[in-house]
Amino acid sequence: MFNDELVKKIRAAFPRAEKDYTGRKRAFFDNGTGTLVLERAAKAEAKARVDCSANIGANFDESKLAKETVKEGKEAVAEFLNAPSGDTIVSGESATRLLFDVSYAIGKECNGTENVVITELEHYANVSPWNELVRQGKIKEVRFARMNLEDGTLDFDHLQELIDSNTEIVSVTSASNVTGTKIPLEPVRKLAKEADSYFVVDAVHHVPHGLIDVQKIGCDFLVFSGYKIFGSHGSYMYMNPEYMENLRPYKVKPSTNTGPGKWESGTRNQAMFASIKGVMDHFLWISEQVKSQYEGKFKEYSGKRCDYKIAMSATQQNERELSKAVLGGFDDIPGLLNIPKVKIYGITDVNRINERDPTFAFTVDGIPNEDIIKYLWAEGGIATRAENFYSYAVEVFNQQKVNRISLVQYNTLEEVGIFLKALNTICSRK
Ligand SMILES: Cc1ncc(COP(=O)(O)O)c(C=O)c1O
User: Fold this and answer.
1) CB atoms within 10 A of CB 190
2) By percentage, how much of the chain surpasses pLDDT 90?
3) What are φ and ψ of residue 285, in 5° steps?
4) Could you tell me the distance, in angstroms and rounded to a whole number, from the CA of residue 241 to the centre of ligand 1?
5) Which of 214, 311, 323, 374 could form a disulfide with 358, with the two C-beta atoms 3.0–4.6 Å apart?
6) What is the CATH number of domain 43-278?
7) pLDDT tens-digit readout, 145-156
């Protein structure tokens, strides 16, 4: 758990946590779209840009440093995901791009009879790459496992029904970027592996909220993006080494035929690896701050894994307290559950807070989303938005757009209070 002093220190690590670049005090609640950047990540990125802008592969110092920067960044990502080594991490421009790359490569192996099973909770980054395979005739169909409309959870029985011997890929999000609802990944892996399918995980939304362990999940591919976890743009994908070698991504002839380099088209941006290393160092720093609270716990973890476990557990605990306040209110301020006319999409039961990330989608009967968002910004200094968020789930809820707030480690109870007061005010207007 974070105490007040630690929250202050964490906020101090983000130059824009308190005020935006114009000097306006505001609460940043648009984190699901892209978080604020850590000072240490931004500085490391800028330094790498200047010190090792040279391309890797030569024997002079800048080139050697560029190579080392990429290696260190990948190793840090591998440790954070509990991947076997930095050589199992493929980098790319975005999570969307990496998922398309996987779909192209697997599509080459298909004969038009296969299906891909996904869920109604997905971001389109985990929908369109598979639909594209249907369009090209590489697979027969994409099947969508139902989302339970009342709480945004996955209908697991339906998922089970959809998977059969022709299922080539099962690909799911670890958490919806709209409702925050998490999908229990290990049971899905079990079903995917029983059907001898590839198992793909889109961890883009969940990554700042909980510890990921690719070996425990047992996935073949797992992707996340640096800009959703306090770093720069650029994304990272864990790949099962066997598939990394055996699949055939599109590549230019002279590039390597083995390892991540086979998948990484063109030249890397080494500065993004410096940035992500800075992000991982920040989590190690959080662990130092809260370690004493976890003495004797997590004995099955060692070294940096234990530090990441501690840091993410404390982060999660803190976020769960904020989530309870968002839903249930506090100090006489009504929460989302108690504001008349507010409809919440997703889990609303505070006793089930561990099944969701701190991301809340809502609409207000009779008040257009745009008016809500404008008011929150003008009166409360709440930076957030209403959109479809490229989410398939928004369509399933039969909405074009929803309002969304998504919180991360630098958000505070005070900010939640400001948000709720502003929302209460606009909702109480006739
Ligand atoms: C769950 C989820 N998946 C994928 C993406 C796409 O990520 P990227 O912008 O890195 O392609 C997003 C972005 O919002 C997301 O929330």
Assistant:
1) 13
2) 99
3) -65, -40
4) 24
5) 323
6) 3.40.640.10
7) 999 999 999 999
